[in-house]
């Protein structure tokens, strides 16, 4: 991690994995979302959030609202923000009807709520968020670069422009979301993004593989093949 300027956050909701990553100093922070919580089998949101903050008291943690209307989102944000000074409240840039949440983002930021604005895909959205938030109030703008790439579009030009926009206001950080592989960490770091969220598999690779001499990989790969051949019991002759 010392080779990077960018902060690496773990993306997940497995409490034991989060605690281990924190204990071993594998990452700089954590993000969660409703899909990850469902996958991890979280059954009580409030109990989960309280336990996470108790076990991880001094690293950034993002918890997302569940509601689809601004009024209820605001009520949920008021609850989530109280769990700890390290908590960022995740607000999607739009709801399921495509309605903008900018009015709520502006209001919460003015009330000094730390926000992680998520599901961002366009430069126009990045501009709107940066303009809406209060200067000096910690804010993450989470642009889903990996999902943009999944459409066949190179996200780098957009992300480079997003860096300039977000850095024009004190307190706003650009977060590269939906990381797919270690090279994304290098890309995000090289353009000046502040944070990248990675699934557990990529976090492991960042800690174990980043900076390795690729000349060693052929032998390591064949050793892996040999181990699997032995355990499989298969033979050709």
Gap between N and C termini: 47 Å
CATH topology term: TIM Barrel
DSSP, total strands: 8
Structural class: alpha/beta
Average pLDDT, all residues: 95
Provide the number of structural domains: 1
So what's the CATH class?
Alpha Beta
CATH superfamily: Aldolase class I
What order do the helices and strands follow? EHEHHEHEHEHEHHEHEHH
CATH architecture label = Alpha-Beta Barrel
**Low confidence ranges:** none
Radius of gyration: 20 Å
Report strand order across the widest sheet.
Answer: 1-2-3-4-5-6-7-8
Estimate the global geometry from the Cα principal axes: globular
Q: Note the beta-strand portion.
A: 15-25%
* Sheet with most strands: 8 strands, parallel, barrel
Oligomeric form:
single chain
User: What proportion of the residues is helical, as a percent range?
Assistant: 40-55%
EC number: 2.2.1.2
Organism: Staphylococcus marylandisciuri
Protein name: Transaldolase
GO molecular function: transaldolase activity
């Amino acid at each position: 991690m010392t080779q990077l300027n960018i902060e690496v956050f773990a993306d997940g909701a497995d409490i034991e994995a989060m605690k281990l990553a924190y204990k071993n100093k594998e990452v700089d922070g954590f993000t969660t979302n409703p899909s990850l919580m469902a996958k991890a089998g979280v059954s009580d949101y409030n109990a989960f959030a309280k336990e996470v903050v108790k076990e991880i008291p001094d690293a950034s943690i993002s918890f997302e609202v569940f509601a689809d209307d601004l009024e209820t989102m605001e009520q949920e944000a008021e609850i989530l923000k109280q769990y700890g000074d390290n908590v960022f409240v995740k607000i999607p840039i739009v709801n399921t009807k495509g309605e903008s949440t900018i009015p709520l983002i502006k209001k919460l930021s003015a009330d000094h709520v730390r926000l992680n604005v998520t599901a961002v895909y366009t430069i126009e959205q990045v501009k709107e968020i940066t303009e809406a938030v209060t200067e000096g109030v910690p804010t993450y703008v989470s642009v889903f670069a990996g999902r943009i790439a999944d459409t066949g579009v190179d996200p780098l030009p957009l992300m480079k422009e997003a860096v300039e926009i977000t850095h024009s206001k004190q307190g706003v950080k650009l977060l590269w979301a939906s990381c797919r592989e270690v090279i994304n960490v290098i890309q995000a770091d090289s353009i000046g993004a502040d944070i990248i969220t990675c699934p557990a598999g990529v976090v492991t690779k960042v800690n174990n593989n980043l900076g390795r001499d690729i000349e060693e990989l052929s032998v390591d790969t064949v050793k892996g093949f040999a181990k699997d051949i032995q355990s499989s019991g298969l033979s050709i002759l």
